Amino acid sequence: MLTECFNRIGIRLNITPMPSKRSLINADRGIEDGNFLRTDTLSYAFPNLVIVPERLSVNRVVAFSKNEKIEINDWKSLFQYHVAYVNGWKNCERELKDHNAKTAVKNEYLLFTLLEKNRADVGIFGLSTGTEVLNKLGYNRIKAIEPPIVTNDLFLYVNKKHAALIPKIVKTLQSIKQDGTYRNIVNQYHTDRPEN
What we know:
Elements: H1 2-9, H2 20-29, E1 34-38, E2 49-65, E3 83-86, H3 90-95, E4 102-105, H4 108-116, E5 122-126, H5 127-137, E6 143-159, H6 166-178, H7 181-189
Parallel strand pairs: 3-4, 3-5
Antiparallel strand pairs: 1-6, 2-5, 2-6
């Protein structure tokens, strides 16, 4: 969707995959131009990043586990388990800071590999993307535990040097949603129902 947005604006978008925490630090320092699929509280920790106030998607954060008997209903209910999460996920770092049995990993592939190898009881990740990663890895014993621990709107952030672009980005994202392109893109890449 961001590629479509920036194409319409006339800017070539280059997305560089990297570990979550490093991508935030680089964007805040201006090494990278922005960061995306982040919650709306990011600017407190990274003051050089400015939110683009048009939601990109909704993230349902869930616990994944091989143990179907585990019941999770909030962050505190995780404290009886060994929890894995991706380094740089601010909500996990904040909510699990007092929990001793936790492991931060570099990326989602390592997260699900820990679960598959029984080195953690639960892994915290987004439902939609997590399900896609599990399908790629072929780990069919790991399941999402419903309901979500938290549901967050996710946004694009740009480094403050690009703040002047924000109104144009917002207008273009709104146009993508209104003309049906957003729904088509989500339907192409996700099996769950699109939300706009």
